[in-house]
Amino acid sequence: MTLKIAVENASGETLSSIEAADRAVLTYHAEYQPGDRIRFAVPRPGYYRVRVDDVVAESLVYLTGDGFAFTVPFDDAAIPYNPKAFKGDLHLVSLRAASDEEANAYGNLALNPIDQHDEPGVYPHASANAETRNEPVFFARNAIDGVTANASHGLWPFATWGNDSRDDAEITVEFGRPVDLDEIVLVTRADFPHDNWWTQVDLTFSNGETRTVHMEKSDQPHRFPVDAKGVTWVKVGNLVKADDPSPWAALVQLEAYGRNA
């Protein structure tokens, strides 16, 4: 088995790379430039642990292909990340296959700090039919990055999924394989009085089941037991806001607890 990490510039030229049989660790001694990508290559689809930066949490991801590219964020795209991430002239990147114990462990199967807006084949993956002003600080991927701070809005650590105040807005988390879920947790933004809140939403699963759940004004996680077997995605939609003057309500985190089916 060969694992490979490469840093490429906007023209596709390789700036630094490393290959390894068991665990690939790349130290990149240069400042990133706009358009740079970190490319990860794996021998086969499966579960891998990936670190794109030393201050971004390592991710357990399920890959359906032979790798993917992570685009180093700049300008607005960098706002949802820790401001220390991808800075300076020394960077640590790593890649290894996940153990069977890691791949099959019980946990939050929606968690993916390295999810990207338009990179297919890397799961879990979040997408939505509405994102406020199409700004990265409101992209769906922010709702599965593991950052649960919800007392404000805007710069990291307060990035959210913003639904552009649309009542028909929906956010979907795809797992890339069948999973069994027993709990959904929603962390909503609680920057009151700037924020409104949702009194109810629908949880819909790939098996066709839909459950309406109710929430209240709170800065604490909203926990909902479920029995969703063999599902490949979960969707949150039919958002009903409270009778409050603020037009803004936002989702900080969508967590889906369970294990592989």
Question: Which secondary structure elements does this structure contain, and how are they paired or packed?
Answer:
Layout: E1 3-8, E2 14-20, E3 23-28, E4 37-41, E5 46-51, E6 59-63, E7 67-71, E8 91-97, H1 100-103, E9 107-108, E10 122-123, E11 125-128, E12 161-162, E13 171-188, E14 198-205, E15 210-214, E16 222-241, E17 250-260
Antiparallel strand pairs: 1-2, 1-4, 3-8, 4-7, 5-6, 5-8, 6-10, 9-17, 11-13, 12-17, 13-16, 13-17, 14-15, 14-16
InterPro entries: Galactose-bd-like_sf
Protein name: Carbohydrate-binding protein
Write up what this structure looks like:
- The structure is a single chain.
- The protein is mainly beta and 261 residues long.
- The chain folds into two domains: 3-103, no CATH class; 107-260, Jelly Rolls (Sandwich), CATH 2.60.120.
- The chain is 2% helix and 46% strand.
- The protein has one helix at residues 100-103; strands spanning 3-8, 14-20, 23-28, 37-41, 46-51, 59-63, 67-71, 91-97, 107-108, 122-123, 125-128, 161-162, 171-188, 198-205, 210-214, 222-241, 250-260.
- The strands form three sheets. Strands 9, 11, 12, 13, 14, 15, 16 and 17 form an eight-stranded antiparallel β-sheet that branches. It has a five-stranded antiparallel β-sheet with strand order 3-8-5-6-10, with no helix packed on it. The protein has a four-stranded antiparallel β-sheet with strand order 2-1-4-7, with no helix packed on it.
- It is globular.
- The protein starts with a strand and ends with a strand.
- It comes from Bifidobacterium avesanii.
- InterPro entries: Galactose-bd-like_sf.
- This is Carbohydrate-binding protein.
